[in-house]
Amino acid sequence: VESGHFDRYSGKKVEVAQAKELRLKNATERCTIEVKSCTPHEGSRVDGTCNNYKYPTRGSARGPYLRLLKPDYANDPKQQFVDHRNSCSVRVTDPLHVARQPVAQSLRNRHIRMNRHSKPLPSARKVRTELHTTGRVEDKVTFNVAAVHMMEFIHRDISVMDGPLDYLKRRQYCCTPIGEKDPRCIPIHVPHHDPYLKVTDIHCLNFSRAETFQDAGCTPEIILPE
């Protein structure tokens, strides 16, 4: 495989016209992966490139996350979203300005999907405390030790997405009224009976959506992120 720049999303080699468009948008680095020539008998590299000679960047670092199974949410597009942000509100001492975002992105990121029965999904905090407890076991019948290992696998896999840096440094206001106006904010509601935080004044955990290829301008908005 000859060296060159490959599209991060599709894995295809970047053609001249696309390369020119990316340069004009100053998006070459964030939307492509540069690969040096892959030799015929070379194994997969540390970054995951060259394990597919037709598409040498597929499965590599900085590539897209693809679903193994189809999403299982509400079928009705009018009922598959719910807004959880109104339940999260704390005082802010140093508000940050909310960055302007495209209208299409704002509409797409405004809500959380609902489950197959068109009901709100459980709080991510509730899922975490029930599946991955500290010092005790909440449910000794439904879950066994395999559930913990599966959760650790998922955590290690998706924690490298373009997300933690955003809510840890750039968007520290998602639990405030300012965050309600930012479509990238998706704060986590803390249940009143939380086993660890119920004795504190913490009712909301700051969190924002991971950046998608659509957000980065690498993929058309018409293609919905998975």
TrEMBL record:
Its main location: secreted. Keywords: Glycoprotein, Oxidoreductase, Peroxidase, Secreted. It holds the Pfam family An_peroxidase. It is found in: Secreted. PROSITE patterns: PEROXIDASE_3 (PS50292). InterPro entries: Haem_peroxidase_animal, Haem_peroxidase_sf, Haem_peroxidase_sf_animal. One of its GO terms (molecular function) is peroxidase activity. The keyword Transferase does not apply. One of its GO terms (cellular component) is extracellular region. One of its GO terms (biological process) is response to oxidative stress. This is SFRICE_035024.
